[in-house]
């Protein structure tokens, strides 16, 4: 009898684990991202990352010429193009177009999730910049213009928030697993490229970008988790049988 119950219950446990795998993974990203950001922020506040940050920046410059980027000219142009993907202007346009698409499909909850995630991410980014007030690398290292404080990288954080949210939403609509993997993988790749371009162009320290990735991923998954639990609560309410009249 015990063996039979185990045989019956084990597939059910596997099915439940698969259903909650997304929520569990998102919760893990939130925890690791938050821990990573706090660890980096503590090191930055104590000045422990200064030497490593400077060595990374110098490694991306021609020896003895801090104003000259390493690599061919096409790489410089490509980095400038990629870094624009993390700007408020480009991300704002992407959000508006994506929201319009979701609204036309009457997917209001997903559209609101995208707006709330992006708006909250921008507010968090600007608040953290004001709190830390870290100076950017010297002007001689910068290949493009930049404003505001340096920590954390707003481009890295906001690109992680927006593209990860879009990737997760695209994966949710997809039926095939390889499409889901492609959607999330593409979002991660774009976020990584945007962050790397900021360091390469000399407008951010490496620790700024790492912190931006951590906070951006944590915030994006926190918003997704909130939406997930709200949806599950409504589904549970809808599935309850209506009380019978006496």
Descriptive account of the structure:
With 246 residues, this protein is an all-alpha fold. It has one domain. Helix content is 75%, strand content 3%. It contains 9 helices and 2 strands. Strands 1-2 form a two-stranded antiparallel sheet. A hairpin with a 2-residue loop joins strand 1 and strand 2. Helix 5 runs parallel beside helix 7. The protein is globular and about 75 Å long. The two termini are 40 Å apart.
Biggest sheet, open or closed, and with what strands and sense? 2 strands, antiparallel
Number of strands: 2
Shape: globular
Low-confidence sequence ranges: 1-10
State the order of secondary-structure elements, H for helix, E for strand: HHHEEHHHHHH
Oligomer: single chain
Number of distinct helices: 9
Q: Strand arrangement, largest sheet?
A: 1-2
The overall average pLDDT, rounded, is 84
Radius of gyration: 22 Å
Distance, first to last CA: 40 Å
Helix-strand layout with pairing:
Layout: H1 2-19, H2 21-45, H3 50-59, E1 61-62, E2 65-69, H4 73-83, H5 88-104, H6 108-132, H7 154-173, H8 177-200, H9 206-239
Features of this protein?
246 residues, mainly alpha, two-stranded antiparallel ribbon, 9 helices, globular, disordered N terminus
At a glance:
The chain is mainly alpha-helical and about 250 residues long. The protein is built from nine helices and two strands.
């Amino acid at each position: 009898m015990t063996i039979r119950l185990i045989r019956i219950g084990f597939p059910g446990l596997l099915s439940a684990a698969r259903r909650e795998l997304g929520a569990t993974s998102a919760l893990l990203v939130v925890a690791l991202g938050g821990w990573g950001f706090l660890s980096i922020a503590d090191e930055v506040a104590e000045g422990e990352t200064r030497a490593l940050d400077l060595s990374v920046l110098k490694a991306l410059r021609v020896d003895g010429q801090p104003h000259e980027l390493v690599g061919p000219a096409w790489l410089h142009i490509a980095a400038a193009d990629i870094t624009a993907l993390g700007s408020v202007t480009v991300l704002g346009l992407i959000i508006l177009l994506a929201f319009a698409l979701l609204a036309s499909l009457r997917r209001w909850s997903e559209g609101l999730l995208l707006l709330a995630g992006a708006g909250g991410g921008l507010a968090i980014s600007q608040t953290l910049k004001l709190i830390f007030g870290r100076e950017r690398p010297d002007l001689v290292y910068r290949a493009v213009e930049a404003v505001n404080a340096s920590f954390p990288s707003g481009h890295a954080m906001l690109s992680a928030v927006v593209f990860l949210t879009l990737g997760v939403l695209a994966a949710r609509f997809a039926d095939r697993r390889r499409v889901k993997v492609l959607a999330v993988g593409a979002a991660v790749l774009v976020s990584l490229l945007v962050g790397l371009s900021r360091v390469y162009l000399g407008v951010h320290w490496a620790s700024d970008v790492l912190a931006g990735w951590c906070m951006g991923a944590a915030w994006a998954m926190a918003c997704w988790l909130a939406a997930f639990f709200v949806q599950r609560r409504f589904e549970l309410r809808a599935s309850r049988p209506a009380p019978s009249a006496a």
